[in-house]
Amino acid sequence: MSGPTALVTGATGFIGRYLVPALSDAGFDVQGVVRNGAAASASASHPALQKQWPSLGLIADDLAGVDTVFHLAGLAHAGAQGADPQALYNVNVDQTVNLFRQAVQAGVQRFVWLSSIKVLGDSSSEPLPVSAPYAPGDDYAHSKVAAERQLMDEECGATRLCIVRPPLVYGPQVQANFLRMLHWALSAWPLPLRSARAPRAWLSVHNLVDLLLTLARVEQLPQQSIWHVRDAEQTAVTEMLSLIAASAGHPLRQWPLPPGLGLTLASVIGKRDMAGRLFLPLEVDMSQTLAELPWQPPVAQRQAIQEVVAWYQQH
Question: So what's the architecture of 5-167+201-230+285-298 in CATH?
């Protein structure tokens, strides 16, 4: 007897590479839309995929047998920088809404879509609840807000819509901002970040995948829901750098640059957003997730950092 069927878009992306084998291990028959249309090579590198498609436009006729759609594909924040706003909107909004409509028409039981905590802003002095007002700060966040709003206005039929808002996700094979932090922490240069003590939310890819599996397996879900997720720990940048360095057995040198001065200097050179992610707080309230789902983050941040550092040192 075959198990439930899951379709993963972005199956060969950073998160998809962890979600696909986890679903297979949990007894799902997994199908995937693969990055860059590389279906042939994906068969060898992702044997858990029972079927692959090179684009979203080719899967509509096959959704009838799918129990859960995990929509991970899209222009991620780093890839969205400098992207044409219309192209960004087409990928992150139009394609998402169209796929959801196809899923509803096909009777898919659950549609799980990755949004971003950035829809609520890049910083907050108070933990951000699901009900916080939208405060997008760039085109990428605006595209996620537009997709959230349109999805919540759609007719859902028998399909349960689950929107997940992760903060920065890290793990082996990570790219972009967290990879940059690994470079910094393990370099020989002293860093001006000892005063970057504002708590910030981070998310191990293992904790994210575990939540996604929970959303696919839990029996009762609202017709529409938004879920906040993060590691159990909310860690300041200076502490994260120290944790990375300690995991690598590397001496870390930091000196204190006052946050206000750092933000001012960064503004002069057009790097205010980057400085904000270093010096300003971004706390995420996931109490609703913990209260309404049978879920806790299974991986401690220290353990997750040790894993990503071991990967970094081998590459």
Answer: 3-Layer(aba) Sandwich (3.40)
